[in-house]
Amino acid sequence: MNTELTNTTSSQINAALVRVRRAAGFPAVGMVLTLVIVTDEGNHYDALKAASDASTEHPSRILVVIRRPGRSPRDRAVARLDAEVRMGGETGTGETVLLRLHGELASHAYSVVLPLLLPDAPVVVWWPEDAPANPSADLLGTLAQRRITDAAATEDPVATLARRAETYAPGDTDLAWTRITPWRSVLAAALDQRHGRISGAVVEGEEYNPSTELLALWLAARLGVPVERAVSDGPGITAVRLNTADGQICLDRPDERLAELAVPGQPDRHVALPRRSTAELIAEELRRLDPDETYHEALCFGLDRLGRPSEPVEAAAPADAASEADRGKGAKRSRATGGKRAQAAGNDAGNDAAASGNPTGPGDDDKPKAVAR
């Protein structure tokens, strides 16, 4: 059931919600939270569909804030609020209100949204695109216990992560972090088994993929070892390799669905790691409303502490195959010599640490733990 209101007010919208609820046969309010989506006219459909799908798991009142400030001075001088109240059908088990703020009213979304919040219920604000530089300082962000952004939707995702680290406040989260939950769970389960000391790690993924950066930051923060960020053709994250004394632990996903986990001394096995939809990501974020301390630790670890990205290797031309082979042999000899020197240096460092009674290397507390999301 849909009800359209033109040039209306927040009180009239509340009255329309009560009428529609009674007409639909739902006199009681069964929503558990208010989800505020701040978007524009071009992106509100996809965001609303994802939120409606997530509301089947978390019944909520969805407020879609669509700012339309206008282009001409005359349009910007007019303040008008149009609304559309939806209940039942595609909206799921909750309520949906589309708020179109015209003209000067587009700068006062806080005053429009505040009277429409569910009483005594948590508030979550989601910016699918064009999130503010500091979500916790935004007026709408001050209403929320959780503030959801998406660094992948920005022009420079890596720079956006750096800004998120500078402006982090308890309750902030990002869908780039939510996307790596299955990866973190599989890696934590693999490291819960008996393995040798970890000396380093490599995370491979697309060049401008913020989830790859966050996964590398999480491993570096939890394991306390050097982590290199390598570039691949994607899609998304393609592989994680952990170097241990017993061999290499490898989680490789060449496609978007199935990954292969290789652990030294165990048979290789396949793991389902599909790329999830936005609705699944939002549903996961709505399961918890407390601050995500693990996300905070990984985000603020420091992108500059990761290894320099490695460029993907291109195949050599047939005509240059012989010269490439010769150069490869020289490179192998160089790497072998360097490896022996590095091994000798590592043995010396280990002997010094053992003599001082302060051995280095990750202990049991440094292993990644599976995080309940």
UniProtKB/TrEMBL annotation:
Residue ranges with Basic and acidic residues bias: 364-373
Domain Glucose-6-phosphate dehydrogenase assembly protein OpcA N-terminal residues, every copy: 51-166
Regions of compositional bias (Low complexity) in chain numbering: 311-322, 344-355
Annotated ranges, domain Glucose-6-phosphate dehydrogenase assembly protein OpcA C-terminal: 170-299
Region annotated Disordered, chain positions: 311-373
UniProt name for this protein: Glucose-6-phosphate dehydrogenase assembly protein OpcA
Protein's organism: Streptomyces durbertensis
